[in-house]
User: Which sequence fits this backbone?
DNA sequence: GGAAAACGCGTCCGCAATAC
DNA sequence: GTATTGCGGACGCGTTTTCC
């Protein structure tokens, strides 16, 4: 069994030094000192901010104007949208419908997904990139011609919106657009800053998100359209060249290991993403070489895929994709003991997310060679 | 049991930092 | 200097807790 060595955070001692082995990346840190987590002097830990940029969702000039609510200023009937302009409801053309984005509040976020039925309304989302012109007033004119109804709707509140922007020393002519959360500056391939348009990422990329204010490690996931406002943090890929294994990371973030780290590192998320970016180690997949380790990782991913699918389909149909993953899990069950195998079959039968989560936790402990009982003991002792 | 105080949470304000 | 995003925090409202 592992030699238990304690580490110090916030004046308390806990944790294995060995924990950090899967996270340590060989990298020269010059004179900055040694890696805080293991004895190597030239290695350092891989953290969150080497993979992700954490950003709030959309920050609108005024939510009550930009978020349309069914029954109040929006009517949805048989896939047709009617929006309230000067007291009457006007039907939106097809092209205008593309500017309405179904919006979720952070309370709809669940581990591995979100509650699809729980959307709060529709956000009006115009994209500055759509209009290829240098002049701001020309751009607004083009927008008004292309989207006559939506722009008329916003024009009702133009004065109020402009005042807010002027007050914030921002360009009042941008009153049609989200203030933040639609573009981010990020380091490009050649170490040059580039502006990343987030609309296609919100619409269709894989993405992980979590509540702006929370002390639990609940991380949601979507690979289809998911929009939220500033009460949600999104994890955007920091480097386009660095491939991110979303299923594995998602499983890891929702696991008991991270739950433990949240506790020991006091990582309650409340208006401080820095702690999270620099405090959470990310396991380096390449550091797992053995066949057994690869097998465990494969099973973790397959189980995570099941959980994502259960969320999406609400325990419904098992697709071909899922069937394939399930077969893979069954084939690889030899790494689990008898007791776990029977648990696993029970979980599949009952579509029980908790049991699948339990299994994922077990597999992570196995992968990282961590003694789960000692972790339990530490949690009981300190929290 | 009711009033007052404290707290939690979401919104969005506005200065700081940075690019051009 | 201007334009734009980043980020901390003020503010306000609703909920919970405390106090008498």
Assistant:
């Amino acid at each position: 069994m592992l030699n238990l060595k304690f580490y110090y955070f916030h004046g308390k001692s806990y944790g294995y030094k060995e924990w950090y082995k899967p996270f340590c990346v060989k990298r020269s840190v010059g004179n900055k000192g040694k890696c805080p987590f293991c004895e190597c002097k030239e290695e350092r830990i891989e953290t969150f901010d080497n993979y992700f940029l954490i950003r709030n969702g959309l920050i609108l000039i005024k939510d009550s104007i930009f978020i349309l609510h069914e029954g109040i200023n929006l009517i949805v009937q048989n896939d047709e949208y009617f929006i309230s302009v000067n007291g009457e409801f006007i039907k939106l053309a097809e092209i205008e419908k593309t500017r309405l984005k179904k919006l979720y509040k952070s309370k709809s976020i669940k581990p591995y997904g979100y509650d699809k039925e729980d959307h709060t309304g529709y956000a009006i989302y115009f994209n500055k990139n759509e209009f290829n012109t240098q002049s701001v007033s020309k751009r607004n004119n083009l927008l008004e011609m292309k989207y006559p109804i939506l722009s008329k709707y916003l024009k009702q509140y133009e004065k109020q919106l402009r005042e807010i922007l002027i007050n914030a020393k921002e360009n009042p002519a941008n009153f049609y657009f989200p203030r933040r959360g639609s573009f981010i500056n990020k380091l490009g391939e050649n170490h040059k800053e580039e502006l990343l348009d987030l609309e296609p990422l919100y619409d269709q990329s894989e993405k992980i998100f979590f509540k702006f204010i929370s002390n639990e490690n609940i991380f949601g996931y979507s690979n289809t359209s998911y929009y939220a406002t500033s009460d949600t943090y999104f994890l955007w890929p920091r480097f386009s060249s660095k491939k991110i294994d979303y299923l594995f990371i998602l499983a890891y973030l929702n696991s008991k290991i991270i739950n433990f780290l949240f506790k020991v590192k006091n990582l309650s998320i409340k208006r401080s993403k820095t702690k999270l970016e620099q405090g959470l180690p990310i396991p380096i997949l390449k550091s797992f070489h053995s066949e057994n380790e690869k097998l465990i990782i494969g099973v973790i991913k397959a189980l995570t895929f099941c959980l994502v699918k259960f969320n999406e389909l609400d325990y419904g149909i098992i697709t071909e994709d899922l069937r394939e993953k399930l077969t893979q899990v069954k084939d690889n069950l030899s790494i689990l003991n008898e007791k776990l195998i029977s648990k696993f079959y029970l979980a599949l039968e009952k579509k029980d997310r908790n049991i699948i989560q339990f299994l994922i936790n077990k597999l992570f402990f196995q992968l990282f060679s961590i003694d789960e009982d000692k972790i339990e003991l530490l949690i009981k002792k300190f929290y």
About this structure: The longest strand of chain A covers residues 80-85. The CA atoms of residues 34 and 233 of chain A lie 31 Å apart.
